[in-house]
Amino acid sequence: MVAALNEADRKAALAQLSDWTYDSERDAIGRKFKFGDFTEAFAFMTRVALHAEKADHHPEWSNVYNNVEITLTTHDAGENGGLSQRDIDLAQVIEDIL
After folding, report:
1. Cross-strand bridge partners of residue 68
2. Number of other CB atoms surrounding residue 66 within 10 Å
3. In this model, does residue 1 exceed pLDDT 90?
4. Strand order in the sheet with 67-72
5. What HEC string does 54-79 produce?
6. Is 72 exposed, middle or buried (0-12, 13-18, 19+ CB in 10 A)?
7. What is the pTM of this model?
8. Is the dihedral of CA 7, 91, 60, 74 positive or negative?
9. For residues 1 and 66, what is the distance between their CA atoms, to the nearest angstrom?
10. What is the rounded CA–CA span in Å between residue 63 and residue 80?
């Protein structure tokens, strides 16, 4: 089991990820991305997928043409799942990919 971030750690981590929004109902973070076309969006998703697979931590996401929406939460964090350092690490990798 992975530890969920406490409130202070979550706030500190989110301060480093300015374009991500916090969903308190799900204890998750999310971000929407818009690319020039479908090919750019799909290439971005492929790069993220390769990192996610290596980390064994997979995003919830959707893609419609040039739009990608990503939600990060750790399903086995704490008793009911929630935001963990794994989510923050993956969000930082996603930022680097951009």
Report:
1. 33, 63
2. 15
3. no
4. 21-23, 28-34, 67-72, 60-64
5. HHCCCCEEEEECCEEEEEECECCECC
6. buried
7. 0.93
8. negative
9. 35
10. 27
Q: How far apart are the C-alpha atoms of 13 and 31, rounded to whole Å?
A: 15
Q: How many helices (H) and strands (E) does the chain have?
A: 3, 4
Could you tell me the end-to-end alpha-carbon distance of the chain, in angstroms, rounded to an integer? 30
Q: For the chain, what percent of residues have pLDDT higher than 90?
A: 90
The angle formed by the CA atoms of residues 7, 54 and 37, to the nearest 5 degrees, is 85
CB atoms within 10 A of CB 54: 9
> pLDDT tens digits, residue range 8-31?
999 999 999 989 999 999 999 999
| 12: exposed, middle or buried (Cβ count in 10 Å: 0-12, 13-18, 19+) | exposed
Q: Pull the structure tokens for residue 73.
A: 């939460």
Q: Which two tokens stand for residue 34?
A: 């818009």
